[in-house]
Amino acid sequence: MSTASDAQSPAWAGLDISGLGNGFEDYDIDARTPDAAGQLARFQQLSEAARAQPGIQHTTVSYGADPLAAADIFRPIQGPVRGTIVFVHGGYWKGKGRPNRAFLAPAWVKAGVQWINLGYPVVPDTPLPEITRQIGGALHAVVSGGSPFEMVEGPVVLAGNSAGAHLVAQALVDALPTEAPCRIAGCMLLSGLYDLRPVVATPAQEWLRLDAEQALRLSPLCQAPPPLRAPVMVAVGADEPEAFIAQSRAYARHLLGHAHVDYQEGAGLNHLSMIAALDGPEARFGRPMAAWLGLEGA
Q: Is 96 helix (H, G, I), strand (E, B) or coil?
């Protein structure tokens, strides 16, 4: 893991990021992800089964007036809670995927970890600046134990994929400064979009509707890096389009010297299979989160 005190940059810091400027073919993630519809259908089936599993307490809380401003909370019915993971789903800021990410929770709950799937209002009905404000407020409430997240226990890991990774990264800039409570044990950012300027030059602008100033302000890559106390892993699937890989490479490089940051490209993983690599303490990208929560060897 690379730290702010490293004398030399890690090898990945020199990887090519020219793909950032690629065209819509690279940013059209639905078309570029094999069997995207089938993978999402499996997420739904697995999530329906997860909500029916014994030993799990499932509740939903609202943090805003919009019905989508809600979080599904999965925790052990018995035994202590050893930490909390908050996951923000993707979907190009227009997907309503919170209910279909329940499948990520059971293995964590079995290990004594509370899992929170954090949803949010979506574009174009809700402008992206307002979505980032609401997610920032919700995550601040999580780490500070504010309403409606008083049930949060132990150290907290913040995680997100795709648009969700962007929303977490933007919250680190806007809503979770260094003076925030020191409950954040780590941040797991998968396949995120950290520079929105290339994205608004694609058909995604049909639902994003951002002007140039907004695209700049809502791009974590274009803001001062947050000086985080907690480790950050920036990861992307090796089978994802070059634009998404370049976004992650560039953002990991952006954090160097300001956070304990690591970067990984998941061999054999694409934009959706990366999500399933979080589905428990033994999963590919679950292992670092388990370590941050102190689960190793327990």
A: coil
Peptide bond into 177 cis (omega under 30): no
Label residue 234 left, alpha or beta by phi (over 0 means left) and psi (-120 to 50 means alpha).
Answer: beta
Average pLDDT along the chain? 94
Return d(Cα 75, Cα 164) in angstroms, integer. 22
Domain-located, residue 188: yes
Report the CATH number that the domain containing residue 122 is assigned in CATH: 3.40.50.1820
Q: What is the pLDDT of residues 233-274, one digit of tens each?
A: 999 999 999 999 999 999 999 999 999 999 999 999 999 999
Cis ω for the linkage preceding 148 (within 30 of 0): yes
- Residue 90 counted as domain residue: yes
Task: Give SS3 for 264.
Answer: strand
Runs of H (alpha helix) within 152-241: 163-174, 205-208, 212-217
Amino acid symbol at 242: E
Q: Is 195 exposed, middle or buried (0-12, 13-18, 19+ CB in 10 A)?
A: buried
Q: Show the tokens assigned to 228.
A: 């985080």
Q: Which residues pair with 186 in a beta bridge?
A: 157
Structure tokens at 249: 């490479």
Q: Which pLDDT score, from 0 to 100, does residue 260 have?
A: 93
Q: Is residue 88 part of a domain?
A: yes
Element at 136 (helix H, strand E)? helix 128-144
Question: For residue 3, what pLDDT is reported?
Answer: 43
Per residue in 10-44, pLDDT (tens digit) is 999 999 999 999 999 999 999 999 999 999 999 99
Residue 13 lies in a domain: no
Number of domains in the chain: 1
What is the extent of the structural domain holding 97? 19-286
Residues 83 and 153 sit within 8 Å (Cβ to Cβ): yes
Average pLDDT, integer, range 47-67: 96
